[in-house]
5-methyltetrahydropteroyltriglutamate--homocysteine methyltransferase (Desulfolutivibrio sulfodismutans), 759 residues
Amino acid sequence: MQTHVLGFPRMGASRELKFALERHWRGELSAQGLVDIGRELTVRHWEIQREAGLSLVAVGDFSFYDHVLDTAAMLGLLPGRFADEPRPLFPETYFAMARGDAEKNLPPLDMTKWFDTNYHYLAPEITPGMTPRLARQAVIEDARLAVSLGHRPKAVLLGPLTFLSLCRAEDGADRFELLPGIMAVYREILQQLAPLCPVIQIDEPILCTEMATAAKAYFKPASVMLRAAAEGAKLLLATYFGGLGENLDLALESGFDILHLDATRAGHELSGVADRLLGDMSLSLGLVSGRNIWKTDLARAVATARDMARKLGEDRLLIGTGCSLLHCPVDLERERALAPDVRRTMSFAVQKCREVAVIAEAAEGWDHAETLAKNAADLAAGRDNPLACDPAVRRRLEGVTPAMLSRQSPFAERKKAQQARLNLPLLPTTTIGSFPQTAAIRAARLALRRGEMDQAGYRAAMQEAIADAVARQEALSLDVLVHGEPERNDMVEYFGQMLGGFCFTENGWVQSYGSRCVKPPVIFGDVSRPAPMTVDWIGHAQSLTQKPVKGMLTGPVTILNWSFVREDIPRAEVCRQIALAVRDEVADLERAGTPIIQIDEAAFREGLPLGRADQEAYLTWAVECFRLTASGVSDATQIHTHMCYSEFGTIIRWIAAMDADVISIECSRSKMELLSAFGEFEYPNDIGPGIYDIHSPRVPGVEEMAGLLRKAMAVIPAERLWVNPDCGLKTRDWPETMASLANVVAAAKMLRAEIEAEK
């Protein structure tokens, strides 16, 4: 049996790529220096895979920012505003597409979530007249290097149908008209890769979704062309994040040599797929999860592999990860502070590579009895951990009633009570919550962690940062203020540190987008809230101003989806536990006089299963968990929520069912495209569509922001619109933040004047 992973984390065990990228963007590291660091990481990751015993190493999975952007660059599909610039494709144009160009006022590509993960991809733009060409050959160069170093490389390419399905079609373009030109480029690439790579992996996760009719129609002809171009190598069709469902026939009839099935998400399809494999098509079994940090049940995985080997023969079976390990931390060996009973149940990317090899070896008859016995004991220890079960939490969950899931009055009545309390102007201005994490804030946090500053000193430093944020907002004349969240390193980790049932890694970093990494908390036990978490910070901010200050919380669905979650009880049950804990915080904030409470559900859409049959169950309990968190307050307390880059069209009625008084969403990169769903559905409550892209260093002008507001007013009445940035401002610097927010306020005032003039 051959063994492989679908991809490996890019950032490095010490986030070497993150720091190199940021040095390059600051002008402190040359382009060649950046390339050298990328090459060093790539070679190191190949060695990890080979040393783990894998027979193939993945090449082409490394990226300096995003693999979808890489594919657009490879195909030479650059939007006109970038294609017209006389500068090299990499790195100048590449990073301009990713981050925008502040100097030349060029906005970046739109960004959204990669299927149901917390990874963000950049959505390429397709416009009429584009002509694909082979513009960047990084995957070919990497394959040659891997061969020169003695590896058996497996090239990884994003499939053409998934790529086109994820693109944004602009100015009336038909994305699939580009397919013949794209296939010509893929043919050229495959012809060069085939002599170097015994296997070439084509990622088509779009097959695990309800595909567009055009994508289905073009899939088989495109697959036949790919197969013909890869003469001499085997083509592996990689699907992941779900089952194939109604697209199983498409996959089986594709003509690919190998079909990869994510058995960690679609194990129920294994037997049927094995029975229906056509001709001599092989099966790649994704038996090791690329989405969690828990050890694989090796005995179960070996049994599955042996069963499939009996049906197909060992020579027609590959063992791998369910999906790329991009979504995992790198190396568990770097974690020394975890409780031993929890640590022994974990496996990061390095360890998962070895799990893949062990499963294949044991299935072939190698003696791994000791390894399997230790694995079983480790998993049993996790299940039997006495800290994992809290009877009080479970009793409280049993006592939840339907009345706890609803506000006292309908939105229209609540809005009157809230306006009487808040007295806000038309098009009220606010921010999403976080402000720049300055060097002083980071230094104070580090000093506290190292024991160089006591709690009193840290508290004073944070209060000073809060006072500065409040003063800046008052100077800008924002209508609703925030405390700026200086005390929070991460919007999920901060809360997890004060909730029972969580533990934390020291180096468990996972890429979110570009150089941005997150360190997801680990939920290993029942969740509870021992004490208030935010009340003092919000109260301090409110004491400094007469304007309303929002309390800022992270919602239960986002805490769940942005954590590594225990697998011994259903995710819905874990989410309800979190909801009750955050509900207590909401109640305490209200008792303290906080007039507005924002419960961020940035990851609400993210957890949606790809298979339509599984979606309603998820949405039902996700909405219930939000309402359980938010519904215990009076009519006069205004509940906000915020959602990050998401496609809302198919779930808009569920978002409405959350019944938040105000929802803010990211709209500026899509030029208000995302807002169309809220108009078509006649979304009933208030909404704040973002008019300022915080992921780019550029400062949008007042007229640009006003233009976006006018687009929003064509969909949502001005009486129900709020004015705000796309997201939190934690990653920005103060000068650009102040300049951009000044323009936000000016744009709101401009529109108020226009509305008044029309009366």
